[in-house]
Amino acid sequence: MRKLALAALFAATVATPAFAQDQEPAPFTGLRAEGIVGYDRLSDGSGQDSGSSDGVLYGGQLGYDFQAGRAILGIEGEISGSTTDTRADSLLATGDRFTLDAGRDLYAGARVGLAVSPTAMIYAKGGYTNFQIESEYRLGTAVARDKAELDGFRVGAGVEYQLSPKAYLKGEYRYSNYSEVDGYDIDLDRHQVLGGIGVRF
């Protein structure tokens, strides 16, 4: 009987820390805010050899994640800009210049993740993106400017690593495709590789 009581006491002592650990808040749960910077490449997805352009991506993101066991489900919104641009001289007439600049990009979507350790997770994401481009045509003193908005979708994958209970780093690749601009069908591909640093509240 005494042996049975000692065994029960030992089991309770061992189980208590594990139970307490299970009751701790999930590390990937809560509101988060982050800054991002990375590489941006824009190209014609029609298959024609029409060239591409690249630049630096920068922006910010807000999101909320919920963790259940090792599974993580989250929603997120982002606004970003880019230095990506394309310039062509003597396009329609000798001495003219046409410039196409990447404007702001709005994104809203969701992500699904898996905690591979107490401080690291991998995830996949997808959602809607609205991309603004700005054009300018110059011929002598005449200047014509215009803006257009492109609707598309985005998919991606990444890794997030916690530096502390509040701060984290992440690396991400994502692909976006835009198939319509102001009612006209197009095919524009966008590839981005970025890093981010954030805070979870």
UniProtKB/TrEMBL annotation:
Q: Where in the cell is it found?
A: Membrane
Q: Which UniProt keywords apply?
A: Membrane, Signal
- One Pfam family from the record: OMP_b-brl
Q: Name all Outer membrane protein beta-barrel domain ranges.
A: 7-201
**Gene3D superfamilies under this entry?**
2.40.160.20
Task: Tell me the leader sequence span.
Answer: 1-20
Please state which protein family the record places this protein in.
Belongs to the Omp25/RopB family.
Q: What is this protein called?
A: Porin family protein
Write down the species.
Sphingomonas donggukensis
